[in-house]
UniProtKB/TrEMBL annotation:
Keywords: Transferase. PANTHER family: MOLYBDENUM COFACTOR GUANYLYLTRANSFERASE. It holds the Pfam family NTP_transf_3. It comes from the Bacteria. InterPro entries: MobA-like_NTP_Trfase (IPR025877), Nucleotide-diphossugar_trans (IPR029044). Residues 5-150 form the MobA-like NTP transferase domain. SUPFAM superfamilies: Nucleotide-diphospho-sugar transferases (SSF53448). GO terms for molecular function: nucleotidyltransferase activity. This is Molybdopterin-guanine dinucleotide biosynthesis protein A. Gene3D superfamilies: Spore Coat Polysaccharide Biosynthesis Protein SpsA, Chain A.
Amino acid sequence: MEFDAVVLAGGGSTRFGGVDKAMLVLDGVTLLDRVLTATAGAAQTVVVGPVRTTYRAVDWTVEDPPAGGPVAGLAAGLQRGTAPVVVVVSCDLPWLTADDVTALVDGLGEFDGYGLRDSSGQEQQLATAYRRTAIQEAIRRGGDPRDKSVRRTLAGLNLTWTEPTRAGDDVDTWADLDD
């Protein structure tokens, strides 16, 4: 099934002391490029955040106004592409693979979204394949997307989740980068 990818890479990385988390290197590859490798099968990929050097060509956009949070980033990213399925990922998922992305798209079924659980069992709304119309409608219903909670905004969607997996583990602190 054809899908687009929206990669959120505009956060402030405050827990990393302002270091650009997307450009952190793990095993010789930036976190952003690791996610871009996992989503390489997308018909169109848009990265929401400042333009950076990446290993493959992608579209770039920023939320309006900048620093409006992840829901505003989603709203901006969803303005690009036309595929009926959108894989939404944050740039800080270093263990995500192309096989994981394929499994999310293939496992969508009749649900509005099919997402990863991290290794602790936490549902990761920013590591999920969504039906484009469902996520767009959820954001529209929420009104102005600035500074909104992703969980609250998407709470009305019919979502299902994988078993816990390392692929859903995001990197929020330096300790999270330990293999």
